[in-house]
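[recover] target loaded
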């Protein structure tokens, strides 16, 4: 068959040939649905003839979902792992449960499969210093609608550094020598 789609120009099928067109009729609402596809035949240099193909089907009901996102609130110390948990409600059922994609703005952080309780968890071992605005996007699946969480905002901040200075000896006389020992302590990353 000549390639036919909404962007193609008219195509010609050679005389005596036939072709089959696959029409995907996918109702998006529940109940009995009908429609039609209209083809124009202008073969044999005669006036164009219109052929109407009737379509009918039954749409499935689609269960609406809500996705909630839990994670850190406020500041997270640099180097600390961050766990994001998305919960899809009602929990999806069936063979395929769908996935949740976690985004910081438009940047994909990761995609995780949803378990039978409707939960998807992503642990990030260490994020760069900065502000984060994360959403969880549930893909949906057959008969179950997709949904997007509200935004969870948090910041990754640098850890506090402790600096200690010790002078030895503690008492000095004019012209005497002393040693200054400076120690900085950076706390280890938290899990």
């Amino acid at each position: 068959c000549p390639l036919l789609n909404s962007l193609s120009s008219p195509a010609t099928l050679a005389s005596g040939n036939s072709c089959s067109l696959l029409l995907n009729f996918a109702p998006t609402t529940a109940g009995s649905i009908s429609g039609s596809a209209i083809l124009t035949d202008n073969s044999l240099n005669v006036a164009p003839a219109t052929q109407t193909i009737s379509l009918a089907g039954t749409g499935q009901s689609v269960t609406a979902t809500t996705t909630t996102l839990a994670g850190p609130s406020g500041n997270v110390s640099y180097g600390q792992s961050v766990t994001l948990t998305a919960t899809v409600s009602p929990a999806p059922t069936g063979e395929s449960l769908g996935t949740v994609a976690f985004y910081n703005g438009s940047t994909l952080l990761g995609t995780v499969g949803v378990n039978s309780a409707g939960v998807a968890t992503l642990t990030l071992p260490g994020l760069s210093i900065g502000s984060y605005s994360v959403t969880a996007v549930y893909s949906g699946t057959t008969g179950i609608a997709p949904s997007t969480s509200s935004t969870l905002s948090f910041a990754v901040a640098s850890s506090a550094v402790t600096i200690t200075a010790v002078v030895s000896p503690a008492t000095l006389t004019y012209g005497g020598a002393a040693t200054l020992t400076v120690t900085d302590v950076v706390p280890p990353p938290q899990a």
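[recover] notes: The mean pLDDT is 81.
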